[in-house]
Structures are given as C-alpha cells and as structure tokens.
Design goal:
Helix content is about 35%, strand content about 35%. It is an alpha+beta fold. A hairpin with a 3-residue loop joins strand 1 and strand 2. The relative contact order is 0.15. The mean pLDDT is about 90. This is DUF4440 domain-containing protein.
Amino acid sequence: MIKVLLFIIAFLLSFLSIGQIKEIPKYQPVDLALHNEIVKMDGIYFDAYNTCDMKTQADLYHEDIEFFHDKGGLATDKQELLKALKENICNKVTRTVIKGSIEVYPIKGYGAIEIGYHKFFNKEEPNAKSIPSKFIMVWKNENDRWKITKVISLH
C-alpha cells in the first residue's frame, strides 16, 4: 500500500512540475534593422571566409579578438588566428548558415550578439556529413564600423 501511495505522490508531483515548465518563446527580433545589419555583416564575413579573402577577415576582426573553439581552444592573437585560418581553412572548408537560424540581440552602448546555426563542408572529405552547429558572435560598433570581438564556435 505504501508503494502505491508513493507512486501516486510521485506521479502527481511530476504532473504538477510539467505544468510549471514555460515554453521557450519563438525568436522575434527586438530591432529588425539591427538584425538585418548583423545578418548582412555575417554574410560579408563568411563570404570572405569561404573565398579566402584575408584582408576582409582581418578588417572585421577586432584587435582584441577572443575566438573560443570547443575543439581548438582559445585564440586571442589576431595575427595567429588569421594565419591559422589561412593555413587550415582557405580552399579547404566552406560555411553555410542555416537559413532563419540567426538571432540578434542588441547590447546597449556596445553592439550586438549574434547566435545561430551553420554547417561546414570540408572539401578534402566531400562525403563527410555536415552537421549543424551553434555559433555565437559578439559584434562591436566602433565609429559606425562593425567589428567581431568574440566568437564562440561549437561543433
């Protein structure tokens, strides 16, 4: 009898806790113009990434860049980061954003945070399956120019 009573209590408690879970709201841009601007900047950056345009990439990275990669660790030296991209990415890897996945949040007095999903395709492993992965980029607006100050790349 005690086992049945404990089961019923556990069942009711789990039922009550499910009722308290709030749904995650669907993303709606707080500032549509900012959202569109950051999506445009993302496109400019990754066009440069995909075509090995190192000048544009260098122009978009802030001098105090912090690039967090779940597999590669933290890079904080802009020139070393650019060198690694040139040696390991150029003409080997391309990136595509998952359409509709980008979220942009304004950061007052600083810029914006971009969160989204993308896929990478390795030209040296053309049959490898590309799995969507999450990324976060922090954009700083300095003198009406957007710069990437932080990247978090998760695979």
